Amino acid sequence: MPRSDAAECGELSPKLLARFAEFVTGELGIKMPESKHSMVQSRLLRRVRELHLESVEQYSECFFTSSNAEEREHFLNAITTNKTDFFREAEHFDYLIRTALPALSRTPNYRPGSRFNIWSAGCSSGEEPYTLAMVLSEYGLHHRGFDFAILGTDVSTRVLELARSGIYEESQIAPVPQELRERYLRQGRGQAQGLVRVAPDLRRKVAFHRLNFMEEDYSILDMFDVVFFRNVLIYFDKPTQEAVINRICRNLVPGGYLFVGHSESLAGLNTDLSCVQTAVFRKPV
């Protein structure tokens, strides 16, 4: 009977798990409790096989005794969770169009004809920023002169490559309304059968960059009218949540909106944001 991968490559001991967990928390701020043991082990074993090493212990010796930035990037790519969908938590996109955009146009610092800037923070493989691009493009069809730009950031270089390509399997676009599919997505042909790609004009509205939320200075020069920071807070402890929210708000205009995931809350965090809707917060004007 063939042995399991874990048996072949060595079990991940609690002590070794704690060491990797400490590294991940230090680098990314992500909590890594013991309940994540199986997930961490399976992803580490995959990396061990890819490098043709004999065990997790051998990998850990190489990992912690060298300063191989490329391998650390591979590890962080492997260990981070990237779950997203087109039109995920769709109520937020309705609120953006029906409430946030009109309210922003009434703020004292609003300049007619100015570009609307939005940040998808923790954008994963790009479904959220491309959803925003579709929604805002539709808004622009009915509001002459409206222009926008979207920044998508993530810590994983692997998912950012996927996002920049704008290529998805047909099953992934199921939540996209048919009318928007026809307008903004292109069906693959030949060897690309079963794939779709975001239309070039839409892709040009979105820029992608790597960002680690644990950095003290995000080095982002733009100010944003709206930030989507959804389903990321759940991976941080309370002090990290507060620090990250306040860093993000440095780049949020007065009166700007912050959207978090429906299962997330800013309760107990010291910020100057006010809750205006479920999982929607606004900076003072």
Q: How would you describe the overall organization of this protein?
A:
With about 280 residues, the protein is an alpha/beta fold. About 40% of the residues lie in helices and about 15% in strands. It has eleven helices and ten strands. It has helices at about 5-10, 15-30, 35-50, 55-65, 70-80, 90-105, 125-140, 155-165, 180-185, 200-205, 240-250, and strands at about 115-120, 150-155, 165-170, 185, 195-200, 205-210, 225-230, 250-260, 275, 280. The strands form two sheets. It has a seven-stranded mixed beta sheet, covered by helices on one side. The protein has a three-stranded antiparallel beta sheet with strand order 3-5-4. Helix 11 links the parallel strand 7 and strand 8 (about 250-260). It is globular and about 60 Å long. The N and C termini lie far apart (about 65 Å). Mean pLDDT is about 90; it is low at about 1-10.
Outline of this structure?
The chain has 285 residues and is an alpha/beta fold. Helix content is 41%, strand content 17%. The radius of gyration is 21 Å and the shape is globular.
Mean pLDDT value: 90
Count of DSSP helices?
A: 11
Q: Report the strand count.
A: 10
Shape verdict = globular
Strand share of the residues? 15-25%
Give the % helix. 40-55%
Order of helices and strands: HHHHHHEHEHEHEEHEEHEEE
Largest sheet: 7 strands, mixed
**Order of strands across the widest beta sheet?**
6-2-1-7-8-10-9
Structural class by SSE content = alpha/beta
Write down the Rg: 21 Å
Distance between the termini: 67 Å
List low-confidence stretches: 1-8
